[in-house]
Every structure is written in structure tokens, then in C-alpha cells.
Design a protein that fits this description.
alpha/beta
Length: 273
């Protein structure tokens, strides 16, 4: 039997929001949401990005999933207050990109930071005895400076990751690699500048992006609603007013500290002022 009415999801736009630093938790949540978008057969997806970027691998997996989904539905990205570095990379998975004129974007590049506590450890009389299978097994150890060969190895790693980033932006925005490299030096720029560079398609709000998304799939922009796919709220926040706001402030600080600790020594597509 053929049901005469369209399922309600085919008359709505799916919406996924990516906020904060991109890491494994973000990847897991977004990939699950994208699977739901495909299963429920939404005609389009509005991707709201408000992120300074994050880890390389997680950004690449989200981008790859968006690229696959884009073969089936329309995807429009809306850049919020900031969509930089890995946020830009993820945005390349959308068919179209809208940014506010004052959005902070760009920061196309790679950064890797380690900590050298050698002088501090000397002062308090702490040293380490290291047994290793090869000369580079403890690369970026915090109790000594990098050697020149180690710097060369890490620079090559960074350069390779950078080339991947540049190539993706060039393909996603139909630009030449040379054109992308002219502004992919780590600098940040506004949404208005991004439009002139070809990084985004239009200037506008998330509402403008929603209306455009609806038009792209033949839906009425005046009536079409967004269905936001988000994590289930903690049980406490569903019953005690204000508890979510209180916990989110503390949680955000803890999450950022955990991110800093877990990504020490990793190449990042992250805007770090």
C-alpha cells in the first residue's frame, strides 16, 4: 500500500549545530546525527558552525560524511560568530556557505604545540631516565628541547596536513591551490572578506541560510521549519529550571581543559589566539 502523504520529515529541513572545539565527542554526535538525517529522508540539511576548529582526524571524518550525504540531499552551512580552521574544513562539506559579515573565519593552517618544562624540572631537582627503541620515540618530550632532526620530522608532518587542508578548500570552493595558498597562511578574516576571497557564497544570518536551503529543495521558505538534531538533555536539566545554564558554564571550562590536555603534541586545525 502506498501512503498518500509525504512523511513530515520530507517537509522540514534538518539542522545540526557544531559548537566549540571539534574533538572525538563532536565527531561521534555529528556522525550519528547525519545518519539520522539520511534515514529520515530529510530533503536538506542546515549546518550551523560556531567553532574555532579542533583535531585533524575528527574534522576530516565529519567532512567526509557530509560529502557523502551531499550526494543525496542539499547541504547549506551557516557560519556563526566564528568558523575558523577545522570549522572551515567541515564547512567545505556543504554545497553552499553563508556567513555573517562580521563572522571570524579563515585561520587555514596547522598548529602543533608541546611544552618544555626542562628549566622548571631542573629547579626542583626532577629528571627522567628514558629507555626507548628509537631516537624519536619520545619526540616532544616535555623535559627537554627538540633536536633539529625532530623539528624536521614534525615540520614535514605539519606541511603534509596543511597540503590536505589547502587541497580540500581548493576543491570545495572551485579555487586553484595557488589562490587558496595566497590567504591560507593562518590569518583570520571576516565573513565579508571571505566572500571576496571565494570562501563563502553569500553574506547573511542563519535565518537567511534557512530560507535559501528551503528554496533549493522547492519548499516554502515562509513555512518550512527546521528540525534540530541534538543530544538528549541530562535528566536534571529537564526538571530543574536553570540547572543546565549553571552546569554548562562549568562544563565548558572542564571540556576545554580536557581538550587542551588530550591534544597536547597533536597537529590541530584550530584557531589559537
Amino acid at each position: 500500500m502506498v501512503w498518500p502523504f509525504k512523511p513530515k520529515f520530507r517537509k522540514q529541513i534538518a539542522r545540526i549545530e557544531i559548537t566549540g572545539a571539534i574533538a572525538s565527542a563532536t565527531r561521534k554526535r555529528v556522525l550519528e546525527a547525519l545518519k539520522t538525517v539520511e534515514e529520515k529522508k530529510f530533503p536538506a540539511l542546515l549546518l550551523r558552525i560556531d567553532s574555532p576548529g579542533g583535531t585533524v582526524g575528527d574534522s576530516q571524518e565529519i567532512y567526509s560524511a557530509l560529502k557523502r550525504l551531499r550526494e543525496k540531499i542539499k547541504i547549506v552551512a551557516s557560519f556563526g560568530n566564528i568558523s575558523a580552521s577545522g570549522g572551515v574544513y567541515i564547512g567545505m562539506g556543504a554545497e553552499h556557505i553563508v556567513a555573517n559579515p562580521g563572522t571570524i573565519t579563515g585561520s587555514i593552517g596547522v598548529i602543533l604545540r608541546g611544552n618544555n618544562l626542562e628549566r622548571l624540572l631542573d629547579k626542583i631537582g626532577v629528571s627522567f631516565q628514558v629507555i626507548k627503541s628509537g631516537p624519536y620515540k619520545d619526540i616532544l618530550a616535555f623535559d627537554r628541547e627538540l633536536t633539529q632532526p625532530e623539528e624536521n620530522i614534525l615540520q614535514e608532518l605539519i606541511d603534509t596536513s596543511y597540503q590536505q587542508f589547502v587541497q580540500t578548500v581548493a576543491e570545495g570552493r572551485s579555487l586553484t591551490v595557488e589562490a587558496v595558498k595566497s590567504f591560507a597562511d593562518g590569518r583570520i578574516f571576516t565573513g565579508q572578506q571571505a566572500l571576496a576571497l571565494g570562501v563563502v557564497d553569500r553574506l547573511g544570518t542563519e535565518e537567511d541560510a534557512r530560507r535559501w536551503t528551503a528554496e533549493l529543495v522547492g519548499l516554502d521558505p515562509e513555512k518550512t521549519l527546521c528540525y534540530t538534531l541534538e543530544e538528549r538533555k541530562p535528566l536534571l536539566s529537564r526538571f530543574i529550571p536553570g540547572s543546565r545554564q549553571f552546569s554548562s558554564g562549568i562544563g565548558a571550562g572542564i571540556d576545554w581543559l580536557e581538550f587542551e590536555m588530550s591534544t597536547s603534541g597533536l597537529p590541530l586545525w584550530l584557531y589559537r589566539p
